[in-house]
Specification:
Blueprint: H1 8-15, H2 19-26, H3 34-47, H4 53-60, E1 65-70, H5 76-91, E2 95-100, H6 105-114, E3 121-124, H7 134-138, E4 144-147, E5 158-161, H8 163-176, E6 181-185, H9 192-206, E7 212-216, H10 222-234, E8 241-244, H11 247-259, E9 269-271, E10 288-290, H12 293-309, E11 325-328, E12 331-333
Parallel strand pairs: 1-2, 1-3, 3-4, 4-5, 5-11, 6-7, 6-8, 8-9
Antiparallel strand pairs: 10-12
């Protein structure tokens, strides 16, 4: 027996409301009272009503979906970022279409172009945004918000972390503990976050008489941190402290030290950046710069959805809109690995 197709009129009749009210309630519009919305959703679920997505998009010119294009999906940073974006989208009854491009500019361009017609707006993290014309040529004509993305001439709303100030603060913390020879494990060269963290480290070292810094390449993953840790131990004069440009590399470095029987922090201090969830659960717990990664994603998606609901056709150079820039300050979290006190220092957050 074939079950009859349930229409929006059936839902409206059962719920005792108009067809327009059903449409607004199921599409997440704000101008529907919450009791009415719940009643409509309950009836729709009981009747097993499923609106046709394509038809709904044609009638409303909305997909109820945001696109998210990231360099990678691997690692706790991206996991936390996606968690924040997803939570923000769900709170506004939107879906999320996710794509990554593994640091390849051609793949990112293809991923951006593929979003056309599928989403109402885009969240983008790109190390290529400062290349002349890259975003202008590849972003679909949609509202867009950039995350941790440098713009030579700000044209799109952006949310980013003050990586430079965070790196200076961490280096200053290690210097204040008496460490004078500090090694830095850098991130990938094209990455803007990595560039800013390296710049902050260099400036803090240069501003401190008697301090010296050495640098090792890294790729923001555990394996490159492990390789850097091995190289540090094989070098002639061992540094007193190591500052890794993110926590994943710091954890890889910590493992290299443990394999060699080098104690942290007794033999060498160690610090990271990001405060990923795992940072507090390793031994010794990791001193780091706390970036509220999920909050970064949540605030960015809120800005994007506000823009979409305001009816913006495009956010970019042609829109005439002034691009707003939101900078999140990272917070020093002192734990055992740097050789300081186990509890946070004055003015820092909880560990």
């Amino acid at each position: 027996m074939v079950r009859p197709v349930v229409t929006i009129r059936d839902v409206a009749r059962e719920a005792g409301v108009s067809v327009a009210t059903v449409s607004r309630a199921l599409n997440g519009h704000a101008n529907v009272a919450e009791p009415v919305r719940k009643q409509v959703e309950a009836v729709a679920q009981r009747l097993r009503y499923s609106p046709h997505g394509a038809a709904r998009s044609l009638s409303s010119r909305s997909t109820q979906t945001i696109g998210v294009v990231l360099p990678d999906l691997h690692g706790e940073f991206f996991s936390e970022l996606i968690r924040g974006i997803g939570a923000g989208a769900r709170a506004r009854r939107k879906h999320m279409l996710l794509s990554s491009y593994h640091g390849d500019p051609e793949q990112q361009a293809a991923a951006l172009r593929a979003m056309r017609g599928r989403v109402d707006g885009l969240l983008v993290m790109s190390p290529f945004a400062d290349q002349p014309g890259f975003l202008e040529e590849n972003l679909p004509p949609l509202p867009a918000v950039l995350v941790n993305t440098h713009q030579a001439e700000p044209a799109w709303p952006a949310f980013e972390v003050d990586n430079h100030a965070g790196a200076m603060a961490m280096t200053a913390h290690l210097l204040a503990l008496g460490h004078r020879r500090i090694a830095f494990i850098a991130g990938p060269e094209p990455n803007y976050d990595a560039q800013e963290r390296l710049r902050g480290f260099r400036e803090a070292i240069a501003a401190h008489p008697g301090a010296s810094g050495c640098e090792y390449p890294g790729d923001f993953d555990e394996a490159s941190g492990h390789r850097a840790g091995q190289a540090i131990l094989a070098a002639g004069e061992r540094p007193q402290a190591v500052f890794a440009a993110n926590d994943m590399m710091a954890l890889g470095c910590l493992y290299a030290f443990a394999q060699a029987g080098v104690r942290v922090p007794q033999d060498i201090a160690l610090a990271g950046f990001d405060d990923i969830p795992l940072a507090r659960f390793v031994h010794p717990s990791l001193t780091t710069m706390r970036v509220s990664i999920a909050q970064l994603g949540g605030r960015a998606v809120e800005r994007l959805l506000d823009q979409i609901e305001a009816g913006a056709d495009v956010a970019g150079p042609a829109s005439g809109e002034v691009a707003d820039r939101h900078v999140l300050a990272p917070e020093l979290v002192v734990r055992a690995s740097s050789g300081g006190p186990e509890h946070p220092a004055s003015g820092t957050g909880p560990g």
